[in-house]
Amino acid sequence: MDELREAGYNEILLVDGHSVDRTVELASQRGIQMAAQEGVKKAEAFRIAIRCVDTQSFLIMDSQIFLRRIQISAIVWSTRADLTDN
Questions:
Q1: Going by C-beta distance under 8 Å and a sequence separation of 6 or more, which residues neighbour residue 66?
Q2: What dihedral do alpha carbons 2, 10, 15, 29 form, nearest 10°?
Q3: E-strand spans in the chain?
Q4: Which of 4, 34, 43, 67 could staple 71 via S-S, CB 3.0–4.6 A?
Q5: For residues 86 and 67, what is the distance between their CA atoms, to the nearest angstrom?
Q6: Residue 11's pLDDT is what?
Q7: How far, in Å, CA of 17 to CA of 48, rounded?
Q8: Which is it for the CA torsion 82, 71, 55, 53, positive or negative?
Q9: Contact predicate 55/11, CB 8 Å
Q10: Contacts of 68 (CB under 8 A, 6+ apart)
Q11: Is the torsion defined by CA of 64, 4, 57, 55 positive or negative?
Q12: CA 70 → CA 30, 37, 66, 80, distances in Å?
């Protein structure tokens, strides 16, 4: 979460799937917007996230995925380039 903010991504949404670690606590301390996952399947978390965002593009990340700042920037840059080409 901190690395995303340091990279300039300030609109971060955490969809919590009933975590039992300190995820919610840490996100709350950082002022991260949160939504609760109603079901247990990952697709439900994605549906909630899609309903909550109001941006032209967004990136969905799973807690098990680790992306470096440069990788995130490359994904976002590539997506924006695709949007402007069409």
A1: none
A2: 50
A3: 13-16, 33-36
A4: 67
A5: 27
A6: 83
A7: 11
A8: positive
A9: yes
A10: none
A11: positive
A12: 22, 29, 12, 15
Walk along the chain (86 residues) in steps of 10 and give the mean pLDDT of each run: 78 84 88 85 84 78 66 61 52
The answer to whether residues 71 and 5 touch, using CB atoms and an 8 Å cutoff, is no
- On whether the CB atoms of residues 30 and 37 are closer than 8 A, the answer is no
Q: How far is CA 78 from the centre of its chain?
A: 17
CA 14 to the chain's CA centroid: 6
Structure tokens at 36: 């609760």
Q: If you search the block for the tokens 């009933």, which residue do you land on?
A: 18
Would the pTM count as exceeding 0.70?
Answer: no
Judge whether 12 and 32 are in contact, CB under 8 Å: yes
